[in-house]
Amino acid sequence: MLGFIEKLTLHPDELGTEDADAVRATGVRDEAIVDAIHVAALFNMIDRMADSLQFEVPPYESFLARADTMLADGYLLYALPDPGDPGVEEDAE
Q1: In sequence order, what DSSP letters do the residues of 14-43 get, joined into one string?
Q2: Contact 44, 9 (CB under 8 A)
Q3: Contacts (Cβ under 8 Å, ≥6 apart) of 1
Q4: What is the pLDDT confidence band of residue 77, given thresholds at 50, 70 and 90?
Q5: Considering just the CA atoms, what is the radius of gyration of the chain in Å?
Q6: Looking at the 3D structure of the chain, how many domains does it have?
Q7: Which end of the chain lies in a sparser environment, N or C, as judged by fewer CB atoms within 10 Å?
Q8: Residue 13 CA: distances (Å) to CA of 10, 17, 30, 65, 81
Q9: Is 49 part of any domain?
Q10: Residues spanned by the domain of 68
Q11: Does 80 fall in a domain?
């Protein structure tokens, strides 16, 4: 599967049905192949967008500081406050 995803990422024009057939031959179901394609495509898109916009990667220590929370909670998306709530301050202009 990793070879399939690598080829999809680096040489998508060379990927063919024979590549998917080779992955299937190892016992991987089509649903798992599709899931892997979706994950790879999203990561590739995000990576290219981050590179083009010159996103800064935080230092290693920042990741260590967040590690325990990430292990406990995973990638939780917290709701943003509703601007209409009385406790939410307006941005000063």
Answers
A1: G--HHHHHHHHHTT--HHHHHHHHHHHHHH
A2: yes
A3: 23, 26, 28, 32, 33, 36
A4: low
A5: 20
A6: 1
A7: C
A8: 9, 12, 20, 41, 44
A9: yes
A10: 2-73
A11: no
